[in-house]
């Protein structure tokens, strides 16, 4: 059995198998009602045909996609064929429909995403023609942006408004309208369905479901998640930095050595050497949810789906390092996020129960449990969503905890109480955050490509945000990929590097925000267009340009596009930035062979 689909009334189940048959089952008694031989009229039949995908529509039509490249429409009441389309040049792997179910999309191993639309037949006036026969599914067009098999299709409808929590009053936000309109936002609107495809080329694309062939698909970040890398910049291992890399079932402890942290480098490669120190595997191959490294690099922690664990990195002389397990208090829940205090004496955990635990590593006891609340004057805390991200200020006083809904709780660790609650900002999820090293200003980025700066101590939005947050340059609004992290120069009080897997952007809150039309001509470049996508000649030109030191004046919101996907960016000093990248060619080598298509004349 390769595919299944429920009928609308849940009385029948349809299954597709590798013998080329579609079976209809009675869901109450589990008896087979009838079977369909899908290979009739297709390129394959019998055991050569695989039914990879099934889709049931409200009108009673069953849609199938098979290994012959056929998309067939069936009358589910009688099991008869209504129509068959053979526009795919390979297996049809996925099917999807819009909420109104008057359009069907198919995707296959040939990289195509094809649209079919229902249309009324001219024979509809004939009384002998059934309703199913009176409507025909016609081919509309295709889009091919994937370079390998398309394995998944889904229909997403961006939510217009989230329901308020009980006893919570919604506040009307007054702000000036953003005058900028971008190509992606011409069709991507709240409440408007969009088609999303995923392929073996690791790409995710979004399409306009209403105007499928009129707008180019939007390529967005396939993994908009926090970086799975922790850098202990102040580690005591001979002045080098300890780096913790999280995988699904293990942690790798690496030692990063830089030739000269104080001298700016003009090359993007060859300045850092990495040595593997140890590998820590989870018990029973449990999935690791979160991990953390202390600022000195000597304490490591991780949490799987059962409980958190703590380890000490010991130097045994020479190049030998070992990991010793340390005890933690019993009863700690597994954690979605964790980090160490500034002095590495405490481990801070965000439990799945919505509470934050502070563990004293020396005494092996729970020093404090924070019960998060939205109302600062509330005597009892309500049930809060779990915290998925945490960020600590450089001096260890402030802790910002972000829950899965995008709300932020500010905790004062010195007085051990909650200081402030910041609700979800402009309906955007928090993608990254961090405290400026010198002034403890909290910088937050959201999924809407907005940047907020908060004065935590004064419990208010910073002056910069009040003036510029909703008037950012167009090139930042079109940030390629979703922001996954921030990095602050250690000695700066006003600048930050914002990065995604595809690019990074320099922001100085002390400089004015210059809109795109006010920049020199050389700087007016969309970040999406800076990626190397237009041929080898352009790649060679950019490569030679990148290898030369940049002498031009740096502008606020300057972008730098990455050649390969970047997993992590972190400052080692004010003049030195460590980037961890994954060579794209290494990823491509792991792809399967795409469908061979003969090109005329070759």
Give the helices and strands, then pairings.
Blueprint (H helix, E strand, L loop, with lengths): L2 E4 L5 E5 L4 E6 L5 E6 L13 E6 L4 E6 L4 E5 L4 E6 L6 E6 L5 E6 L3 E9 L10 H4 E10 L5 E7 L37 E6 L4 E5 L9 E3 L8 E9 L2 E7 L3 E9 L13 E10 L6 E6 L5 E6 L3 E8 L5 E6 L8 E6 L5 E6 L3 E6 L4 E7 L15 E6 L5 E6 L4 E5 L4 E6 L7 E6 L6 E5 L4 E5 L4 E2 L1 H6 L5 H4 L7 E3 L7 E5 L3 E6 L27 H11 L11 E4 L4 E8 L2 E6 L2 H5 L14
Notes on the structure:
The structure is a single chain. Mean pLDDT is 80; it is low at 161-182, 263-268 and 519-552. Helices cover 5% and strands 42% of the residues. The longest helix has 11 residues, at 536-546. It is mainly beta. It starts with a strand and ends in a 14-residue tail after the last helix. A hairpin with a 6-residue loop joins strand 33 and strand 34. It has a domain at 3-163 and 188-220: 7 Propeller (Methylamine Dehydrogenase, Chain H).
In short:
By secondary structure, the protein is mainly β.
């Amino acid at each position: 059995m390769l595919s299944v689909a429920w009928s609308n009334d849940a009385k029948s189940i349809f299954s597709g198998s590798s013998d080329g048959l579609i079976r209809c089952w009675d869901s109450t008694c589990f008896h087979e009602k009838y079977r369909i031989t899908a290979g009739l009229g297709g390129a394959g039949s019998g055991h050569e045909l695989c039914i990879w995908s099934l889709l049931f529509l409200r009108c009673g039509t069953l849609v199938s996609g098979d290994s012959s490249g056929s998309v067939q429409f069936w009358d589910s009441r009688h099991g008869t064929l209504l129509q068959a389309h053979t526009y795919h040049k390979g297996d049809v792997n996925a099917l999807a429909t819009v909420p109104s179910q008057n359009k069907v999309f198919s995707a296959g191993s040939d990289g195509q995403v094809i649209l079919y639309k229902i249309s009324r037949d001219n024979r509809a006036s004939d009384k002998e023609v059934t309703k199913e026969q009176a409507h025909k599914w016609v081919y509309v067009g295709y889009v091919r942006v994937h370079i390998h098999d398309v394995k998944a299709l889904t229909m997403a409808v961006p939510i217009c408004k989230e329901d308020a929590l009980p006893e919570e009053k919604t506040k009307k936000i007054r702000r000036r309208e953003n005058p900028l309109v971008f190509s992606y936002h011409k069709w991507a609107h709240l409440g408007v369905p969009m088609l999303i495809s995923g392929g073996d080329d690791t790409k995710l694309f979004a399409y306009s479901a209403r105007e499928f062939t009129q707008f180019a698909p939007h390529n967005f970040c396939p993994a908009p998640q926090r970086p799975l890398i922790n850098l202990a910049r102040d580690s005591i291992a001979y002045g080098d930095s300890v780096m913790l890399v999280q995988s699904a079932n293990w942690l790798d402890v690496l030692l990063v050595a830089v030739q000269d942290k104080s001298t700016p480098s003009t090359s993007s490669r060859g300045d850092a050497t990495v040595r593997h120190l140890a590998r820590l595997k989870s018990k029973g191959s449990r999935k690791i949810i979160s991990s953390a490294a202390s600022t000195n690099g000597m304490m490591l922690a991780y949490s799987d789906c059962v409980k958190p664990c703590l380890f000490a990195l010991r130097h045994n002389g020479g190049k030998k390092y070992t990991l010793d397990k340390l005890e933690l208090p019993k009863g700690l829940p597994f954690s979605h996020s964790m980090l160490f205090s500034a002095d590495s004496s405490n481990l801070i955990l965000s439990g799945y129960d919505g509470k934050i635990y502070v563990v004293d590593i020396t005494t092996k006891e729970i020093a404090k449990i924070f019960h998060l609340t939205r109302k600062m004057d509330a005597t009892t805390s309500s049930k809060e969503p779990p915290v998925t991200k945490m960020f600590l200020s450089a001096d260890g006083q402030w802790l910002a905890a972000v829950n899965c809904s995008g709300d932020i709780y500010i905790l004062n660790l010195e007085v051990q109480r909650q200081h402030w609650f910041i609700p979800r900002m402009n309906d955007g999820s928090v993608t990254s955050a961090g405290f400026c090293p010198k002034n403890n200003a909290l910088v937050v980025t959201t999924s809407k490509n907005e940047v907020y700066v908060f004065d935590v101590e004064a419990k208010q939005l910073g002056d910069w945000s009040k003036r510029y947050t909703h008037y950012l340059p167009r090139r930042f609004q079109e940030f390629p990929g979703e922001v996954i992290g921030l990095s602050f120069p250690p000695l700066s009080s006003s600048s930050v590097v914002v990065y995604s897997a595809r690019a990074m952007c320099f922001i100085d809150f002390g400089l004015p925000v210059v809109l795109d039309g006010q920049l020199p001509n050389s700087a007016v470049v969309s970040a999406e267009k800076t990626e190397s996508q237009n041929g080898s000649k352009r790649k060679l030109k950019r490569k030679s340009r990148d290898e030369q030191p940049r002498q031009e004046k740096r502008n606020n919101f300057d972008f730098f596009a990455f050649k390969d996907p970047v997993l992590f960016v972190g400052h080692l000093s004010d003049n030195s930035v460590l980037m961890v990248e994954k060579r794209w060619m290494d990823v491509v080598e792991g792809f399967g062979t795409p469908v061979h298509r003969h090109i005329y004349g070759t």
